[in-house]
Amino acid sequence: MSSLSDRLDDYAALPPDERAAAARDAAALPEHADRLAEARAVASLLDAAADARPGRAVSEDDLAAYLADHALGLVPPDADRVEAALAADPGLRDAADRMRARLANLDAHTAGAESAEAQFERLFGHTLSPPDAAPSPEAPREAHRNGNARHAARTSADRAADRTAAAPPRAARSGAGRRVLVLAAALLVAYGGLAAVSASQQTDRARLADLADLASYAPIETRGADADPLAARLDAALDGVEEARRTTLGLFPRFDSARLDAAAVDLAGISSAADPGSSVSQEARFALARVRLHQSRDDEAVRLLAGLVREQSYRAAEARRLLDAIRTAPGA
Amino acid sequence: MRDLARLAAALPFSLDDTDAAAAAFAAGRSGDAGARRDADLWAYIWTLRYIARKFLTERVGEPSDVDAVETRALEGVRKVWDAVEDAARFPSYVSKVCKNAVLTHRARRRTMVEADETVLGPAFDDERFDQDAVIVRRDVVTAIADLPPAVRAVATMRFLDAVGYEDIAEATGHPLPTVRAYLSKAVARLREAPHLRAHFFDDVLPPGALAR
Q: Measured between CB atoms, which of A44, A61, A73 is closest to B3?
């Protein structure tokens, strides 16, 4: 028989009975504890890879994946196989009933909580397109190809119905309609030209601060908890920044300095009053830093951004990028 | 539970396409803002899906625990841009952060559960490798592809297709001792493969990358 050391080396490749014997022998020798732990870790990793092979029997993990994906609005990757197994296996149906009861509890708990979109935007600092934006004609097909969202499961008949409903009457596409289209196209070209001029006139400083991108704050809503007054103040202060912005037909943006100062004072007050570790404080300081950057008050901006980096805020990565940009900006 | 349909629809690749996620991470790191958003979006959806799936199989714990685990996991995921140097490891990193968040939750629950709750157990099996199978299998496939051809064929049958020793010997024409010797070599190589080590050891990530 191989030595215990050899058997632990080969543990992941051993059949179950030989693994059990090796584990039993190693457990009696404390000096082998670390090697046994590593052997088990490697074995469990390789077992997991084998368990994920196509065509394997449906497990409770597969069932959980199927039910969770449905509940989250995702398309389960292996739905047909799981549904066939559910139809054939009463034990699996019992497990599904238990999981559905658990899902109902989770649903009740998260009712009224912050939406996924708001949470993603708040935590990661990205802005998603508005939910009511008209989808491109390719969107359903793309989603179907990707297999991500539940709307991918819509049938071709659904899409045909959508196209029929959206198609304008034939008469509207002739005569006056064409002239309107030509006029609209001309206006679009003119507007595009002005937009290019507007963009070219924007200063590097304004681009860096990008105050137009200061999203409204979506506070975390916890069931049974009172709304945080500071969160409401932060949302109002961010609205203040937005209201300080002036444009001409959406172009040539500039800021009302008095209103911007007032918003900055609000943001400073909020960051002083809030717990430094709270998202309200971090959002307020990050927004204030961008306002100060816009106002060319770089020392204050750097102090605020450096604080966020030092505290390993979730805004730290963006703060670090702004700090780098300030330090490399002309005249810095 | 939160509805992820709209976020998933905004993702330009399949959620289970971890290679595409790694590519988005690499492009995001090179300055492509859209790719950076896609990588963050993938990580966010993956994290919430992972935790939802896990909590359906947990036998103890309150719905409010989901919030705590999500918060812990998302804190770790947000550090990914600083923590991961090799873009190919981005999906594995996210998966490991999720796993650690669940394990930490379990460890805390163990110290708090009442006796009547434990009657429902044993709920947790520490030996079970409970990370997402898609990522684990992808990394094992990658590691096996680097093995010498003869060893690779045997390792593929054993570790990816779960074929028994005797059947491998019959299929390959090798004597049983040769099959065992090849598998022994395969395990030795796989144990040292960086992509696989990253799943169970922290030594391939920068110090503190997984610290909370």
A: A73
